[in-house]
Amino acid sequence: MNIQRKYSLPNCTLLLEGLSDATKITHFQEMRPELSILVNAECHISGYQQPISGGRDFFESLVRAVNAYAQEFFSHIPNPNLSDRETELVQIQAVNNNCHRLIVRNHTDTVADHNSAIAMDLNTVQLFDLVEAVDQFFADTQTLPELMLQIQSAPRRYGASSEVLIQQAVPATIGISSLAAAALAFAMLPAPEVRPPQPQTQEESANPTATTVATPSPTTETDASANTPTPSATTIADNPTSTDTPNVKDLEALLRTVPEITDPSQLKALNRQVYNRINPQWANRGGLPQDVVYRVGVAADGTLVAYKPTNKVAEDVVAQTPLKELLFKSANQKPAGNEPIAQYKVVFRRNGILEVSPWNGYSSTPKVIGEKITEANQLQELSKKLYDNIRSKWAGTPRFRGDLKYRVAVNKDGVIADYEPLNSGAFDYYRETPLPTMFQEVYGDNTAAANTKQPLAHYQVTFKPSGQLEIENWQGYR
User: Fold this and answer.
1) pLDDT score of 372 more than 70
2) Across-strand partners of 2?
3) Cα 316 to Cα 13, 56, 70, 312, 376, distances in angstroms
4) Which end of the chain is more exposed for a tag (fewer CB within 10 A), N or C?
5) pTM (two decimals)
């Protein structure tokens, strides 16, 4: 099975592609699949159109170079390990305080021949993101677990006085001042001992219903609107009375104990359920200082099981969103211990608009789940029924200015079974259409899951600002 792992920051993305070891599949089939055989590695740096890439040798050399250079740069203590690696495929050299040259040599290069080498000049912000991406990789225990980070303390003779360190600790930009300060503080400490993750003890598992903890963030995609470093607070819905629910401390730990939902079609179907669970509960829509983004873990039935703010502002204003309340409600449910989890990006816009999308996007074009009605005459007949039904309930002068497009599904009797907005206007003005009322009349709740237990006919329904209604056969997601 081909596996892809991505570790994303605003200025750097590591993309790893590989396979699982066939001898381990039977042991880990209930978990997130382990990428144990690396086929290709790519490093994308902002501002450069072409990534640097290679196989296992390239990737190992990259992480060694980043590790060694970061230790020297953050501590301002010369790292003797850098001078011993002239034959490495990947090297990083300091050009000045805010320029770091990343050099990738061809496998056939000699030490003195760098004619075919690739060189990228990184500013300090790009360097920090590269270091963070490598850190995310090492925090992901399901990707190349045998590749360990080797940390070596520099000999005391290479040290400098703390006064010199303080004078040199000048961040490249205001936005990274806190990171530079943290790096300086950690540089004064001895190198930590790297230990494998320890299983949670019974005492540690006695958590309250909502727990806030510190955790790294592997596979996190940082939203472009996040202007501050990602906080480390993760809130988990945990049922202390249920022995079936895994005891977890963070979203990453949860994903290591249960499968992750990655099928595009299932993610698409769940997307509407997540939106419909959150949107009606969002009451205070006018008090947000800016758009705020959360990473949300969702069970297969649409239940929210975890959320994580992507920046400090989102952490501070979470009480103005319904996430805590929905998480509290879900704590009273008892999902199976190995129930799969999907990850979604939930954006509460300052203008009162809610947006929900898969955290890692869709790996391919989604398809509508369930059996479909395809017979031409039946499709034509059901289309007419749907048109008459909507037309009889849609009256008045529209207030929207652009087309509202929806996918609407009906059963063999012409009864609505599912609907979903297809463009931004359809999300914003869905209450001006009769679709929510039609769905609620059948199922008693507009937030109910789609009825896909019987064959359905799918249509694209367009509400025009002129009052015109158009219905055509559904051609799939585009």
Assistant:
1) yes
2) 19
3) 28, 42, 31, 6, 54
4) C
5) 0.47
